[in-house]
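Lab notebook: predicted structure, single chain.

Context: the supervisor wants predicted structures on file for every construct in the current expression panel, including those that have not yet been purified. This is the next one on the list. No modifications to the sequence; it matches the entry in the shared construct table.
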Amino acid sequence: MAWTLLFVAGLFEIAWAIGLKYTDGFTRLWPSVLTLAAMIVSVGCLALALKAIPVGTGYAVWTGIGAVGTAILGIVLFGESAGAARLLCIGLIVAGIVGLKIVSGDAGA
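Prediction complete. Output recorded below exactly as produced.
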């Protein structure tokens, strides 16, 4: 359950990171409200997940999910660079996330 919560926390991190683009510096009401709500859900799920997952592992996986998802959506939604070096780096982050999950000691949980 903790890993599921951590994954959900990562998804909401992607949501608030992308949401920041739409808030226009928190000058647009509804994008700002939705972004702040996503922040709260993300951190709340992270806090619950960290009850069972070591903080270093949990935080690294949470930020990794957020970084990878935000980078991919940046490419898809905003036309950001999808060069080979950038995609390789995103792949390395994914490898790190998978590696942390495998070596966490409860890879099946």
